[in-house]
Amino acid sequence: MSRSALVLFSGGQDSATCLAWALTRYEHVETLGFHYGQRHQIELERRPIVISGLRQLNPEWSVRLADDHMLNLGILGDISDTALTRETEIAMQENGLPNTFVPGRNILFLTVAAALAYRRGIKTLVGGMCETDYSGYPDCRDESLRALEHALQLGMQTDMTLETPLMWLTKAATWTLADTLGGKALVELIRTETHTCYLGQRDTLHAWGYGCGACPACELRAYGYKYYSAGTAA
Length: 234
Description:
Layout: E1 2-8, H1 13-23, E2 26-35, H2 42-57, H3 59-64, E3 65-72, H4 75-79, H5 105-120, E4 124-126, H6 142-156, E5 161-163, H7 171-193, E6 205-206, E7 209-210, H8 216-229
Parallel strand pairs: 1-2, 1-4, 2-3, 4-5
Antiparallel strand pairs: 6-7
């Protein structure tokens, strides 16, 4: 088992699954969240609840879970004009990307995470980026992340690596991975306690979790849960 990892943990389904994944592989796991003026700030409120739930699920995970960090990157909200940082309708743009895309978000997140990990003596970053079932964000693609990993290694003169366990998984497979890692108890924790909805709505509990049910994040989550529940890898 490897020594340590820093998990980018937003409080959503994907990052919670990645955190459970890291807890099965690393002796020491720290978490990092970002406040960047996101419209769905409720996800930040879910972070400590999910972390507490993971501790209760598995005594070994509780021992391995270490410091949680929260950093303010409000500059992203200041310079972004997107549906994730403004009260505006979600829509497609002329460049083919949804207006929920926050330019530079993952690049900045991972650069700051690498700086924190360097100071903490951690050489592995874990992120929930995926380019199988996703919204088309270019900074979630494997090619982008490998280039950034290389740049961080060169710029910090370190052998730091970036792990993306969900990169080639469908949303159904992501639910299945959670089941494999922590059984139905972990699936239920993720279903009821994590938050993914871009609009920050948490007044209705659907079969797949809380959310508006109509934004791209909710649609992907619901689609994946449907096929996971049916035992179909779609």
